[in-house]
Design a protein that fits this description.
By secondary structure, this protein is an alpha/beta fold. The protein is built from 20 helices and 11 strands. α8 (180-210) runs antiparallel to α15 (317-349). It is globular and about 75 Å long.
Length: 477
């Protein structure tokens, strides 16, 4: 690479530090900065010899060390902290410089920041970065959005060099204008929520429905990771379940408090789906499940007051086999819903997102990387536009084969009193989507009666209303 230093990064917490090391490992000169000088000094002491790195105490010195057109990347916490960093950096930038936000920003904030910086001639990119601290160091999946030309000219060579690589293809591609990159990362995280909830429900059914020990459940997940279910999350589930707590000798999963936290991206995904009118049931139920898990004191009190069946499925080998199929089918649904949401947003925001490319860059580096994504990419390669991934030949066939065990799992979970909201809602979505005619006609009739909201007919065009408070005649409105 050229000895000129064009790239700078601020925010040396775990993700930022590892990303900076990744850049340096590719012999790309990089200047680093952190608002806390001690952290910059510690980073340089520990990693300064790993490549062409330079550390800087002040924003002015940091920006001054870069050769125009400068490319600077912020890796700080989303929200007010990002705005504060952008405000501090932007006064030192010149027209033509490029500012990249690599945090988990809300895409609406990215759109706002893009518009504000454009007024000063500064190019702004919102780049989703997935893969956690390991991915940041060894190759993440990167989802950049914003101004295309400066991305191609100045940022793309850097991002493609440091991204994960699958079959010779970097797990990085330009997503679309303004907030498109952060939107796709948001949906990625929403699918991640659904995936983890499905895995948790699988564990719960195996542990408390079938009566399997933790080690046996880990073995089961290990076997599944050699099938179509192969994925990073299935792989690390094995690692978590195999971990023994050093102080108690018990499985680690038994000493972790059963109250899941969240940082907001799953909630944003569900909220946006409501705004777009996209039925995002699996991801939304996963968000609600985390919220319910956080009510730990209430749940402990309710355990002594609310009646329910006693799990008694010990030795149900058929249930074990059924769960594998239910997990795979529900996973298909969560991805189908997420890709439908991206399609709807792309149309609403005029982003022109290449959905097949999203499946391609998620095959490596990111948290939801899986064998499964090759099938999604193939579906888009074959058909181009896909209204819903469940309609693609491969997935339609897989769902048909899985539906009987899927139904048995949902029914048995209800009988055992084991909550399975992600399994249940995914099956309900599948059944609702495959029905040519559903019960919404009654809903429209009720809306017309109490609110004169009108309705359409199946046998002729037009909008109609029954004069419920009058002579009961139908009138065209």
């Amino acid at each position: 690479m050229t000895s000129e230093r064009h790239f700078g990064l601020t925010g040396l917490a775990t993700m930022g530090a590892n990303l900076a090391r990744n850049v340096a490992h590719h012999d790309i000169p990089i200047a680093v900065h952190n608002r806390t000088t001690a952290r910059t000094e510690r980073f340089m002491d520990e990693h300064g010899s790993e490549g062409p790195l330079s550390g800087h105490d002040s924003v002015e010195d940091w920006i001054g060390a870069l050769t125009p057109p400068r490319v600077v990347m912020s890796m700080v916490q989303a929200g007010p902290a990002t705005d504060a960093v952008i405000d501090e950096i932007s006064v030192h930038l010149a027209p033509g410089d490029i500012l990249v936000d690599g945090g988990n920003a809300n895409f609406r904030d990215t759109q706002r920041r893009h518009a504000t910086l454009a007024e000063h001639g500064i190019h702004f990119l919102g780049a989703g970065v997935s893969g956690g601290e390991e991915g940041a160091l060894n190759g993440p999946s990167i989802m950049p959005g914003g101004d295309r030309e400066p991305y191609d000219e100045s940022v793309r060579p850097i991002f493609e060099a440091i991204a994960a690589n699958v079959d010779g293809t970097p797990c990085c591609t330009y997503v679309g204008p303004d907030g498109a990159g952060h939107f796709v990362k948001m949906v990625h995280n929403g699918i991640e929520y659904a995936d983890m909830q499905l895995i948790a429900e699988t564990y719960d059914l195996l542990r408390h429905g079938v009566g399997m020990e933790v080690g046996a459940i880990a073995d089961r997940f290990r076997g599944w990771n050699e099938s179509e279910l192969e994925s990073f999350l299935i792989e690390i589930t094995v690692r978590v379940l195999e971990k023994t707590d050093e102080s108690t000798g018990r499985p680690l999963v038994d000493v972790i408090l059963d109250a899941a936290e969240q940082k907001g991206t799953g909630r944003w995904t569900a909220q946006n789906a409501l705004e777009l009118g996209v039925p995002l049931t699996g991801i939304t139920e996963a968000v609600f499940a985390r919220t319910l898990s956080a009510l730990k004191p209430e749940r402990e009190a309710a355990a002594d007051r609310l009646a329910g069946p006693s799990p008694s499925g010990a030795g149900e080998e058929q249930l074990v086999e059924d769960i594998e199929h239910a997990l795979y089918a529900s996973k298909i649904v969560s991805y189908a819903q997420g890709f439908a949401q991206m399609a709807a947003a792309s149309k609403a925001e005029d982003w022109n997102i290449d959905l097949g490319a999203m499946a391609t860059i998620w095959r490596g580096g990111c948290i939801i990387r899986a064998r499964f994504l090759d099938r999604i990419r193939e579906a888009y390669d074959e058909a181009g536009k896909v209204d819903n991934l469940m309609l693609a030949d491969f997935f339609a066939s897989a769902l048909a084969q899985a539906q009987d065990p899927w139904r048995r799992v949902v029914a048995r979970a209800a009988e055992l009193g084991i909550p399975a909201p992600a399994f249940s809602s995914s099956l309900a979505y599948y059944d609702g989507y495959r029905r040519a005619r559903g019960p919404a006609s009654l809903i429209q009739g009720l809306r017309d009666l109490f609110g004169a909201h009108t309705y359409e007919r199946v046998d002729r065009p037009g909008t109609f209303h029954i004069q419920w408070g009058g002579d009961g005649r139908e009138v065209e409105t």
